[in-house]
Write a structure and sequence with these properties.
Elements: H1 2-7, H2 10-27, H3 39-49, H4 54-67, H5 71-76, H6 79-86, H7 93-109, H8 117-121, H9 128-139, H10 148-157, H11 167-181, H12 187-200, H13 219-222, E1 239-250, E2 253-258, E3 269-270, E4 273-277, E5 280-281, E6 292-305, E7 308-319, E8 328-332, H14 343-353
Parallel strand pairs: 1-7
Antiparallel strand pairs: 1-2, 1-4, 2-3, 2-8, 4-5, 6-7
Length: 357
């Protein structure tokens, strides 16, 4: 910490505060969650924004808050309805943890997000970043936070060259974030300004240094190393996956199957699906025991889940003689929008039925 205090001297810190906060006040984006300091709204938005672009989150945030405007309404809702409102946003474990955390907030904290960091981080799905975001933005507490944008900004300002996945580098960045937020006077604006700079100016591949309000204080820029930091771990190679999806309709109803508890996206509904491995179709999961007869091909779609690059052919199909196993059910068209559907299933239904959900 002594080295960090030397690097973040009072004079440099004051200059950074003044330049960045002035820029943020004049240039911050008008985002729906910035119109309120309600801790619940901040918590929901920050949970949605993890690994998801702002433009994607905005409509989901609005719809989610319309249906679940309070901690109580979220806690008392059925988890399937929560998943339905989250459907298409991805990383569905976030929705389940939000639901579980809302129940804990009612039980242990009278429905209020705790001001104590340890208590906040004890909630399901609330880690160091989310806790720091809610405590600083909603309560204006001097709590640091590190997300991908802040990590990049700090690594460039102070020319941190270590691999960011290493514990020592992480501790260094966390120490810098903490040193900068202490005494700032407006931690809510400061932390949001750091994230805003990383999202709009200090970009990963092509930083817009000429428009940066703190370019003069950036050590990486001074050394011509703004493209060299932060040092990120090598991304794993993508995995190509080929699937067949089957649209089975009968009397205006659609046949769906529910993903098992141990599966990715557990509990969500999808069209009957099988994977093609080396050109050889795998059977449906044995527990489903479905007999489907494929008819015409409706088209092909592409979908990405983390590193999985999926190509899926969508077929019309009819149900054979098999009885419906417990994880399969028929749903009327009007019911589909209220279900927790996988993103790929939404695309396939749009393709097969000619209208979006």
């Amino acid at each position: 910490m002594t080295e960090i205090r030397e690097r973040v001297c009072d004079e440099r810190r004051a200059a950074l505060w003044a330049a960045l906060l002035s820029w943020y006040d004049a240039n911050k984006r008008d985002l729906p969650w910035r119109r309120s300091d309600d801790p619940y709204a901040v918590w929901i938005s920050e949970s949605m924004l993890q690994q998801t672009r702002v433009e994607t989150v905005i409509p989901y945030f609005r719809r989610f808050m319309e249906r679940f405007p309070t901690v109580g309404s979220l806690a008392e809702a059925d988890v399937d309805e929560v998943l339905a409102r989250w459907s298409g946003l991805g990383y569905y474990s976030r929705a389940r943890r939000l639901h579980a955390a809302a129940a804990q907030l009612l039980e242990l904290h009278e429905g209020e997000f705790p001001r104590d960091r340890a208590a906040a981080e004890a909630l399901p799905g609330v880690g160091a970043y989310t806790a720091g975001a809610v405590l600083s933005i909603a309560y204006d507490l001097e709590e640091p936070l590190i997300d991908g944008n802040v990590q990049r900004v700090l690594a460039r300002w102070f020319h941190v060259e270590g691999l960011v996945s290493r514990a020592a580098t992480r501790r260094e960045l966390e120490g810098l974030a903490e040193a900068l937020v202490r005494g700032v006077g407006d931690p809510a604006s400061w932390n949001q300004a750091l994230m805003e700079l990383g999202a709009t100016i200090c970009l990963p591949r092509e930083p817009r240094c000429g428009g940066c309000p703190v370019e003069a204080f950036c050590e990486a820029r001074a050394q011509g190393a703004e493209h060299a930091v932060p040092v990120l771990p090598r991304r794993p190679a993508p995995i190509d996956v080929e699937l067949e999806l089957f649209l089975v309709e009968e009397g205006g109803r659609v046949l769906l199957q529910r993903r098992g508890t141990g599966d990715r996206m557990a509990g969500l509904w999808e069209l009957p699906t099988r994977e093609l491995a080396s050109g050889t179709p795998r059977l449906f999961p044995a527990e489903l025991e479905l007999t489907l007869l494929a008819r015409e091909e409706l088209g092909e779609l592409r979908h990405t889940i983390t590193r999985h690059k999926i190509t899926a052919k969508v077929h019309k199909a009819v149900l054979g003689d098999s009885e419906l196993p417990p994880r399969c059910a028929w749903f009327a068209g009007a019911e589909l929008s209220g279900l927790g559907l996988t993103g790929m299933t939404k695309k396939a239904l749009t393709l097969g039925r000619g209208r979006s959900l």
